[in-house]
From TrEMBL:
<dbReference type="InterPro" id="IPR036249">
    <property type="entry name" value="Thioredoxin-like_sf"/>
</dbReference>
<feature type="domain" description="GST N-terminal">
    <location>
        <begin position="2"/>
        <end position="79"/>
    </location>
</feature>
<feature type="domain" description="GST C-terminal">
    <location>
        <begin position="81"/>
        <end position="199"/>
    </location>
</feature>
<keyword id="KW-0643">Prostaglandin biosynthesis</keyword>
<comment type="similarity">
    <text>Belongs to the GST superfamily. Sigma family.</text>
</comment>
<dbReference type="InterPro" id="IPR004045">
    <property type="entry name" value="Glutathione_S-Trfase_N"/>
</dbReference>
<protein>
    <recommendedName>
        <fullName>Hematopoietic prostaglandin D synthase</fullName>
        <ecNumber>2.5.1.18</ecNumber>
        <ecNumber>5.3.99.2</ecNumber>
    </recommendedName>
</protein>
<dbReference type="InterPro" id="IPR040079">
    <property type="entry name" value="Glutathione_S-Trfase"/>
</dbReference>
<keyword id="KW-0808">Transferase</keyword>
<keyword id="KW-0276">Fatty acid metabolism</keyword>
<keyword id="KW-0443">Lipid metabolism</keyword>
<dbReference type="Pfam" id="PF14497">
    <property type="entry name" value="GST_C_3"/>
</dbReference>
<keyword id="KW-0275">Fatty acid biosynthesis</keyword>
<dbReference type="GO" id="GO:0001516">
    <property type="term" value="P:prostaglandin biosynthetic process"/>
</dbReference>
<dbReference type="GO" id="GO:0004667">
    <property type="term" value="F:prostaglandin-D synthase activity"/>
</dbReference>
<keyword id="KW-0644">Prostaglandin metabolism</keyword>
<dbReference type="GO" id="GO:0005737">
    <property type="term" value="C:cytoplasm"/>
</dbReference>
Amino acid sequence: MPHYKLTYFNLRGRAEISRYLFAYSGKQYEDHKIEAADWPKIKPTIPFGKLPILEVDGVIIHQSLAIARYLAREAGVAGRTPLEQALVDAIVDTIDDFMTLFPWAEKNQDVRKKAFDDILTNKAPELLKDLDTFLGNKNWLVGESVTWADFYWDVSSTTLLSLKPDLAENYPRLLALRDRVQALPAIAAWIQKRPKTVM
Ligand SMILES: N[C@@H](CCC(=O)N[C@@H](CS)C(=O)NCC(=O)O)C(=O)O
């Protein structure tokens, strides 16, 4: 098995989807955490200067979703057919477009709070409605079994619900999907064991 080294900050953030995929596949990996204070000196040494990165036997992959898609293919949860894979990618990109709206790095707390409140109050309902329609009465977002789109919904909604606990109260099917993902034994064990961080 290759040596996998995932490098990120001590946060769930953009690395958590890959940690779910490692947990699900049971593959061993090095979960390397960088202290924020050390980042300015490390940044110039990282190709493209952003985290996360995944090293696979020394080959560096950047971009969190490229990393996760690679791990999902390896784990057999990328979608069973090219069509399913396209749908999985589309859902992941839709959720990611939404998560990227938040000014995560904003230092001014007033500006940050205003922007977060606006997105959670005015923009989230549209995403939830569309995701709920897409899910319908299916067990999983795409196909007959779990994919990394379901994982991405769980990872992202965990952060969203920590910001606004009643966010999805009108969407019991989306909440039940979270329960199904979190009931997968490997995911349940990871959630139990992972460091408790705000994001
Ligand atoms: N689209 C990229 C975004 C990467 C990104 O912006 N990473 C942030 C942390 S979530 C980062 O490295 N920030 C530090 C910096 O830009 O110096 C991905 O998904 O990996």
